[in-house]
Amino acid sequence: MDYILKYKYYRIISISVLIIFWTIVSETVNNSIAIPTPLETSNSLIDIIISEVFLSQVLNSIVRILISFLISLSLGLVLGILSGSFSAINNLLSPVILILRAIPSMAVILLSLIWLSREFAPILVGVLVIFPLIYSAVVDGILNVDKKLIEMVNIYKFSNKKKLFHLYLPWVRSSLVSVCAAAISLNVKVTIAAEVLSQPQYSIGSGFQMERVALNTAGILAWAIVAIVLAGILEKIVKILFYRAGKNQLVR
Fold first, then answer.
1. Are 48 and 54 in contact (CB under 8 A)?
2. Is 157 helix (H, G, I), strand (E, B) or coil?
3. Predicted pLDDT of residue 248
4. Which residues form the ABC transmembrane type-1 domain (predicted)?
5. Domain 34-248 classification at class level
6. How far is residue 20 from each of residues 24, 25, 108, 114, 228, measured CA to CA in Å?
């Protein structure tokens, strides 16, 4: 309890110092287009939240973020387990994963806009960016399973299904929690970035673009706050779900 209170205390101090520094810089520059004040940004944030389309914008972006994350997680688990179990598949997929890791995010966004409609392009961008992270975490987890545990399940003649659910998945879960938490936050960033360029009818990215066209820097910062809060909430949800999945696995 004391640790939690101390942690929250330090976070409050950090945010307060940031706001004070922001206020000093904005007052010194004295140009709301370059650096708006925290008050101007707060007013823009309120205007955005009370607008009629805010809920639609946020929900549509959340749907795209979750779809791309779930696709990446599913592909990462299936292909990661296969690659960790069979070296031939691992060698076959290694060049693909290397390419996906190395290709610039902007190139992925532009190619997605060419291949798909503006509504679905951000989903593909999210998958192509975060899938390699999840895949690599699963492969590393499978390859690092304790050899003695593998020998034990072989001695007791566990079926492949039992090996998967009682050995490999629990072992991978510990490394997958932090990776998936980071991946969902990264997914928020790249999906919104793709939305800025593709401009779906209702999305957070479209909100960013509208404020940019209007030269409303306070509005851009306000949308950035929305994105930061959204990323924090989704990251927390992912950690809670993995924690509960682990408890259910122990109960079984």
1. yes
2. coil
3. 56
4. 58-238
5. mainly alpha
6. 6, 9, 38, 44, 19
Quote the CA–CA distance of 215 and 65 in Å, as a whole number.
27
Report the 10 Å Cβ neighbour count for 147. 8
- Write down the residue that tokens 């101090």 correspond to: 13
Contact between residue 38 and residue 19 where contact means Cβ atoms under 8 Å apart: yes
Helix 87-102 × helix 121-143 angle, to 10°: 140
Q: How far is residue 13's CA from residue 5's CA, in Å, rounded to a whole number? A: 12
Determine the Cα–Cα distance for residues 230 and 187; give it in Å rounded to an integer. Answer: 11
Q: pLDDT tens digits, residue range 201-217?
A: 889 999 999 999 998 99
Q: For the chain, which residues make up each domain, given as ranges? A: 1-30, 34-248
- What is the pLDDT at residue 251? 45
Parts of the chain with a pLDDT under 50? 250-252
Q: Residue 124's closest CA among 29, 179, 197?
A: 197
> Are 219 and 211 in contact, with CB atoms under 8 Å apart?
yes
